[in-house]
Amino acid sequence: MARVPGSVYVLLLCSFVTETVLSDKADHKRNVLIILADDGGFELGVYSNKICQTPNIDALAKSGVIFNNAFTSVSSCSPSRAALLTGTPSHQNGMYGLHRGVHHFNSFDAVTSLPNLLKSHEVITGIIGKKDVGPAALYQFDYEQTEENNHVNQVGRNITHIKLLTREFLNKAHNDNKSFLLYVSFHDPHRCGHTDPQFGPFCERFGSGEEGMGLIPDWHPIYYQWEQVELPYFIQDTEAARRDIAAQYTTISRLDQGIGLVLKELEEAGHLNDTLVIYTSDNGIPFPSGRTNFYDPGLREPMIISSPEAGARRNEASYAMVSLLDVMPTVLNWYNIPFAQEETNEVQSDKPKSLLPILQKEPPFSEDEAIFASQTHHEITMYYPMRAIRTRRYKLIHNLNFGMPFPIDQDLYVSPTFQDILNRTRSKQALPWYKTLKQYYYRPQWELYDIRADPAEMKNLHGKPSLASVESALRERLERWQRDTSDAWLCAPGAVLLQQDHGPVCRDLDTGLPHVARR
Ligand SMILES: [Ca+2]
């Protein structure tokens, strides 16, 4: 008999919840706030880092779902942003590398972007911070405060300025009486040594109030002891690297305080209860094996999504395999706008998907879920195309340009961590790192890892007879994804791709290299 009151309670609760949702929908427009970190990683309390202080991101996580298996589709700034804003991998939207300066990459003119699509659905869009994508006509926000009309540090790191711009945008959205999408794209915690070395390796002194550094009034800098930082397995245990991480933490704490200010603006504008909030980062942290790599430190991203809807999961973790490619369909789903995609012959869906259902209920556990990645350049000189598939257990990486040393970007090159690796290697000093520089530079064509047994991706299982069927299934699925997303690198490096009436075909070049696509 004790079950009856319980059931009644549940029914009453459901009835109350339904009415709440309906009245919410009647009274409010639906809005989205995307907060993007630049090269942000897992140096966050919510992801179990006990040293780096991030109370605002941790509080956001308490109000939403914490994704433990979120991945970018490309480990590079502009390509990742283009993928986020189009729902397509870099080889499909054309953003093969960095947009700015001599790199000069742009998406194809015919691609559909999130801001342009929302414009046609009467949603007002705004971007504050680092944009780093083009062409301008393809990525047009109604309100733009970016590096194109400001110094990137002012819109990407000066959290007081970011707060005031957020206020300005929210006022504009209020006056226009429209739903809004606000994309706050911090430049923190990106490195600084290559562009503004006077502010320290992570711009951690920019606006700190020290002499000559300027002052960000809302920022309370937090400084960390290098002996106390949490050292990830892929960074060498040396004082130079630890000091580099300590500087990174100071900048992450500025990002965190900036997020606190933005969320406070949202609350004071009365939008806490009608706005979907998404926090993630474009690519892995700027350390060896991180940014520009397809190892997990380069591909895995923090992701928190907080839904204001009644019944939404709060302070819960999701273990679903999700991609930054899923952000666009998620946002469109939130506004109830269809996400148009070309039909494919796939048996199972490897296409981007809305994550909104996960905010209500954890999907059934599946070993079969996969994410895909595609990288071609970072800087213009860094031609190192890679394609990858990662399931929960396995990762297969195809290094198309495997004969060449893995390229090092300017920003990483000048970093204290990389200089330390270089100097110790040159002078034959002890290097307490999990790889040698030579291993890091020279990678085989295929890398297969059992992530569950070998999370640091140390033991390449490519060609192992006992995994032959696993490897061939991963290769076939990766190839299918490449075909479905019109990958011009489908046949590389062993064959040339020809477009024929019935689709692309690969013609062998007799290089001696086996190629993936045999059709
Ligand atoms: Ca980045």
TrEMBL record:
Pfam families: SGSH_C, Sulfatase
Record keywords: Glycoprotein, Hydrolase, Signal
Signal peptide span: 1-23
Ranges of residues in domain Sulfatase N-terminal: 30-336
Gene giving rise to this polypeptide: LOC113508096
Domain of life: Eukaryota
Protein name in the entry: N-sulphoglucosamine sulphohydrolase isoform X1
Family: Belongs to the sulfatase family.
Stretches assigned to the N-sulphoglucosamine sulphohydrolase C-terminal domain: 434-482
Cofactor: Ca(2+)
Entry GO MF terms: N-sulfoglucosamine sulfohydrolase activity
Gene Ontology BP, a term: glycosaminoglycan catabolic process
Originating species: Trichoplusia ni (Cabbage looper)
UniProt keyword annotation of Nucleotidyltransferase present: no
Keyword Cytoplasm in record: no
